[in-house]
Design a protein that fits this description.
Elements (H helix, E strand, L loop, with lengths): L14 H19 L6 H7 L4 H5 L5 H15 L10 H28 L11 H9 L5 H13 L9 H18 L5 H20 L2
């Protein structure tokens, strides 16, 4: 007869490690089961814990789902590119964002259509959108601009913030509308036909 001593001892998870495991389980449940079928119980079972552990951290299903989406986005960052030119950096980074974020936006959009945050989380659609998308499109974008400024390609003091935000806002829009990465032709249109002409116009002011 096999003794209990032969069975592996499960190490107790605590703090950030536990929270990361819970959010990972919630994301996997969201992807596989969908928002409508996801429950606090199903996430607890997947995470091999109790519902009480979840409720101590998140008041309801919507808060858990939003936290899981934010966590997934945070642990899958999009690395900036450095091609030596502003145009190359933008095209490379926007393409990477599209590839990395299309699946996340599709999952989040499906959850929103299924009722995410309609009642439990007491958030407006705009607040849900901001929590899903976050500001991850912008920090590396600013690094791209700083490098271009240091190379002498642009003068950041002369370019309006709305112009600097434009490529990222358009890619976020396309991801939300199409739920798939913008094709290369679309990215070239954003950079070459919309963004760079505005940058050149700002330099002449």
């Amino acid at each position: 007869m096999e003794s209990d001593a032969s069975e592996p001892v499960r190490r107790r998870r605590r703090g950030k490690e536990l929270e990361s495991a819970l959010l990972g389980a919630a994301w996997d449940e969201l992807v596989e089961a969908g928002y409508a079928r996801l429950t606090m119980e199903s996430v607890a079972v997947r995470a091999a814990t109790s519902e009480a552990v979840l409720y101590r951290r998140w008041a309801n299903k919507d808060e858990l789902v939003l936290a899981a989406i934010e966590h997934y986005r945070g642990v899958h960052p999009v690395e900036p590119t450095d091609t030596g030119s502003l145009r190359g950096d933008l095209l490379g980074y926007l393409a990477a964002v599209g590839e990395a974020r299309a699946a996340l936006f599709a999952i989040a959009a499906a959850a929103s259509f299924a009722g995410l945050a309609v009642g439990e989380a007491d958030l407006t659609p705009a607040q849900v959108r901001e929590r899903v998308m976050g500001d991850q499109l912008l920090p590396h974008g600013r690094a791209l601009y700083r490098r271009a400024h240091e190379r002498g390609e642009i003068d950041l003091d002369r370019i309006p913030a709305a112009v600097l935000d434009l490529p990222f806002d358009l890619v976020r829009h396309d991801l939300l509308m199409d739920l798939e990465p913008p094709p290369p032709d679309r990215l070239r249109q954003i950079v070459d036909e919309l963004f760079l002409p505005l940058v050149r116009a700002a330099a002449l002011r």
